[in-house]
Amino acid sequence: MGGCTKKQKMDTLEEEIVQNRPLTTPLYFDIKETQWPIIYSTEYNIGFMGLEKLHPFDAGKWGKVFEFLKEGKMIRDDTTVRPLEAQQEDLLVVHSKKYLNSLKWSVVVAGITEVPPVALLPNFIVQRKVLRPFRYQTGGTILAAKLAMERGWAINIGGGFHHCSADHGGGFCAYADITLAIKFLLTRFKNVKRALIVDLDAHQGNGHERDFEEDDRVYILDMFNRGIYPHDGYAKRAINRKVELQFYTDDAEYLQLVRRHVQGALNEFEPNFILYNAGTDILEGDPLGCLSISPKIISCDAAEDAPLPDESVEASVPRSTSDGSLWSRLKRRNCSTVPRSQTQENIETCVDETNDAPASST
Ligand SMILES: [Zn+2]
């Protein structure tokens, strides 16, 4: 009995630590005035014995994006923010212990990453070479949400693991960074009462959908190809605005749908915060997305007619370089705390050009 009571006490203590974690996490830190809220770390990239090449998803793409931006003199090492790795206590804010423990089995991680040889590796290698990069990216998304509140915008060049929910990973997504970022935010920032997720990746974002199924503080707009992974009918019930696309939807139809539904979501929900999950897999030729969107459609110029979000938009947290028209427009409206400079204009241009890079998918 005594042992049981002690265990119960430990459990309660652990629960309290987890509940308070968003208030104390070291993942939220201050950045210098001279830094941009653009987040990246070399730790993001998965590069181990060619494992990154065994999935159509390019698991080294984050470094390529960063180098591209750097070569174009659009960002520098010293202006970029390096996030910390999300720790067990951070992950427990959303994930169950059972789920996190399951990742100690390499075969489970092999299933999540869809790379069967991962099952043959000792778990300490899987932790170091596969899961740790994901944890850094998760730390990046959580930090991006905080910085977006302070600066009006932020970008994490990574994350966007929208297939992972509290107790289930899949589709190359091992941690629910989107759910985590919003839960931390709702706890830390009392003025955030309504968060909008705009998920324009080609796949359905079933992870955050399952997590926020019964949470009225979160509104989800999801545009995805209905004929591809994950076909999660249960999760679809949590989508407030579901836009199911046919195979090879083209530019004209796509843009028209984005315009109509983004404006509709903003009118209907009036969010304090927007988290935008971008996806390059909508591009023509992507082997997983199976849509036919040309790079020009997600350029700033092509979207001059797109509706502007209203003044209720306070922040946005896109995750990758496929941040097309929507992001550019949001940024123009919301970057008032950041001096307008040549660098900023360059980043907008660069975002467009990056879409010519090989597409990848989550
Ligand atoms: Zn995707």
Automatic annotation (TrEMBL):
Q: Name one Pfam family in it.
A: Hist_deacetyl
Q: Keywords of this protein's UniProt record, alphabetized?
A: Chromatin regulator, Hydrolase, Nucleus, Repressor, Transcription, Transcription regulation
List, for all copies, the residue spans of the domain called Histone deacetylase: 55-296
Q: What class of enzyme is it?
A: hydrolase
State where the protein is found: Nucleus
The family database entries (InterPro entries) matched by this protein are listed as: HDAC_classIV, HDACs, His_deacetylse_dom, His_deacetylse_dom_sf, Ureohydrolase_dom_sf
Q: Where is this region: Disordered?
A: 335-362
Skewed-composition ranges (Polar residues): 335-347
* Presence of the UniProt keyword 4Fe-4S in the record: no
For the biological process aspect of GO, one term held by this record is:
epigenetic regulation of gene expression
Q: What is its EC number?
A: 3.5.1.98
Give the top-rank taxon of the lineage listed in the UniProt record for this protein. Answer: Eukaryota
Family, as annotated: Belongs to the histone deacetylase family.
Protein name, UniProt field: Histone deacetylase 11
